[in-house]
Amino acid sequence: MDAACFNNVGSEQRSEGDGSEHSSSRSGVGGGMFEYFGWVYHLGLNKLGHEYCHLRFLFIRGKYVEMYKRDPHENPGIRPIRRGAVGPTLMVEELGRRKVQHGGKGGDIYVLRFYNRLDETKKGEIACATAGEAQKWMEAFDHAKQQAEYELARGASARKKLNMEEEIDLEGHRPRVRHYAHGLKRLIKIGQGPETLLRQSSSLGPNSTEGYFQTDFGDAVEAYEWKCVRTVNGVRIFQDVANTESGKGVIVKAVGVIEATADTAFEVILNTARHQRYEWDTLTGDLELIDSYDGYFDVVYGTFDPMYLSRWHSKKDFLFSRQWFRGQDGTYTILQFPAIHKKKPKRSGYHRTKINPSSWEIRNLNASMGSNTPRCLVTQMVEIPSKGWWRWKKNHFSNFEKSVPYALLCQVAGLKDYIGANPALKFKAAASVIKSKVSDGPVSNAEYEAEAVQDEFYDAISAGSSSSDEESDSDELDQKDAKVKLKNVAWAISSLALKRASVANANKELDPNAAPITIDTKQFHGSFCKGKDEADTNCWTSPSGVGFMIRGKTYLEDNSKVKGGDPLLKLIAVDWFKVDKSIDRFALHPRCLIQSEAGKKLPFVLIFNLQVPAKPNYSLVLYYAADRPPNPNSLFAKFVDGSDMFRDARLKLIPSIAEGYWMVKRAVGTKACLLGKAVSCKYLRQDNFLEIDVDIGSSSVARSIIGLVLGYVTNIVVDLAILIEAKEEAELPEYILGTVRLNRVKLESAVHLQV
């Protein structure tokens, strides 16, 4: 059974205090209290050791989390079956796509795992119908973590910390469920809710989005030059004319705007149901899922009759792998490679062929002015052998229309027409729901406090219940359809402008009263050699920041970005280690550069330890030095001496594959990533340094991407920029802390480090 059996189980969000519909960590912590609630799947094991997947109503208010069998807004007397508090050490990880059984029906869901980073035995899992909803729940738990951190930072008494949200929003005693909805003006619902899930089983139910963020470019400058060479049913086909060297494959792409959310388009593309694919996919309509791994990777087998593509009528079959990621901006990337699999050897009567390597990119666009219809931009890129492409072009594309690459590029047009002909796919995601509800039934503050903080959330969700409430799933859910549609607001976002470079003001970020020292890089020697020029391989260099796009001075007004300037910090050395297990707090190791006499004399050093999961594991350690200590009043100092929560919310990395295989470029992308939101980061602040340990293996998505990169690492050039995200006007424009270029790294050159 396909994903159609699992229509949306959404989340709702509200903020009290200012009535704003848009959530942000700044306004949600220390200001109005954020509340999120909606339907999720709770995954676990019952007393007999059998797996279960139950529909549950999850409610987050501040740092408190409660789980119900029914919606407490519609059932005021109901009590939660699980309840707990989110602590600062809670980690939330996306586990990707998983097939489960629910109510006798199978389908795909997107799983989130919760665990305590100090004790991973405390863990639990929930799941959502779409990747977009899973991302929104991750944001909800992130807000809860920020609230917990804020309460700890206030230094108030324990009882006052527990009562903080009451002091902000309420007066006196509250009715039983009034603490969920007191003073509520708007509730914005994401997704369709359980009534749609239970009522429909034949149509794909996309989740809704609260708004649309549109960006036309990444955060690193790419060397593509696209020329439109064909149009098919309103879909443009482009050729990359900047890379036309003889012997290399030609990269061609098809681009189309589809009236649906990115989540919907992504689900349709991944869905292998024949009855659906037959309506839009002329080439890979007959697909069979062979195997899946890690929630972000699978292998599919397909057959097709080539009678419409060539004069040969022998049936053909193929195998290809699919690897997908969802960026922090909601953009999906799907990579498709030819594959082999032991479960599908060559088949009698079929000619085994290879499907061209290809990729999909799906990103949300702003809704058209005056319309609430969602839109997304779908791009499919295909690699074509250069000889065949030039032959097709010379013959004015007469044979191109009978080729497999052309059939792949036509998938965008087929997808556009299929979704356009199915209004359920187009418009369900465009409806947000506004409800205003205040329920009665008295409850004391003391009762809520005593029950809500007995356990932290990962204890509460994973611990076995003494009653049968959690293991049973017999309660019927009310089916109510009173809905009011709210038009999405189209944000006016100006186009990206390539303005002059943004250079860090050293006197603003570094101590202006301290005399700058001269940093002699010859005193510092890492295990990884520095390149003399661009022709060197297996080395590092430190490029300028002009290849990266960062937030400009007026970003909060017009979203404009500018080219980066020279980094604030100087890259003085790089270590490339092979380790038996990931190493934290490397600055305290005798082999660390900061332990040398020259290192101890530096005013400040940022140690960036990238922990690469592999067999064996690797650590890439970057040393960035400043000629003065941080200015105590600067954003840089606030990051260096701030809390881990603040660092996680601000530490940003921009990646770029400057040279290398185009599929690796698509996987890595060029969008800035908030590292603390994507992977686990640990910090060590001592003496004259700050160490940041970035555990790439803590995220299954990051592990998947790094696994692909390591397969091509000796043939690619990687550029990285590290910066602190600016969120306030006084912090703009952004500046780059440091950069590094890794030129065709050889894994065997890593030096073994004894821990």
Your description of this structure?
The chain is an alpha+beta fold and 755 residues long. 21% of the residues lie in helices and 33% in strands. It is built from 21 helices and 37 strands. Strands 1, 2, 3, 4, 5, 6, 7, 8, 10, 21 and 23 form an eleven-stranded antiparallel beta sheet that branches. Strands 11, 12, 13, 14, 15, 16, 17, 18, 19 and 20 form a ten-stranded mixed beta sheet that branches. A six-stranded mixed beta sheet has the order 33-34-29-30-28-37. The chain starts with 10 loop residues before the first strand and ends with a strand. 45% of the residues are buried. The N terminus is likely disordered.
Which helices and strands occur, and which strands form pairs?
Elements: E1 11-15, H1 25-28, E2 34-45, E3 51-61, E4 64-68, E5 82-85, E6 90-102, E7 105-116, E8 119-128, H2 131-154, H3 158-162, H4 164-169, E9 174-175, H5 178-181, E10 188-190, H6 194-199, E11 226-232, E12 235-240, E13 250-258, H7 262-270, H8 274-277, E14 286-293, E15 297-304, E16 316-326, E17 332-338, E18 351-352, E19 358-365, E20 375-384, H9 386-394, H10 404-420, H11 423-427, E21 432-434, E22 442-443, H12 445-452, H13 457-462, E23 485-486, E24 499-502, H14 506-509, E25 539-541, E26 549-551, H15 555-558, E27 561-564, E28 570-579, H16 597-600, E29 604-612, E30 617-626, H17 635-641, H18 644-650, E31 651-659, H19 662-668, E32 673-674, H20 675-678, E33 680-686, E34 689-695, H21 700-712, E35 717-724, E36 736-743, E37 751-752
Parallel strand pairs: 16-18, 24-27, 28-37, 29-34
Antiparallel strand pairs: 1-2, 1-10, 2-3, 2-8, 3-4, 4-5, 6-7, 7-8, 9-22, 10-21, 11-12, 12-13, 13-20, 14-15, 15-16, 16-17, 17-19, 19-20, 21-23, 25-36, 26-27, 28-30, 29-30, 31-32, 31-35, 33-34, 35-36
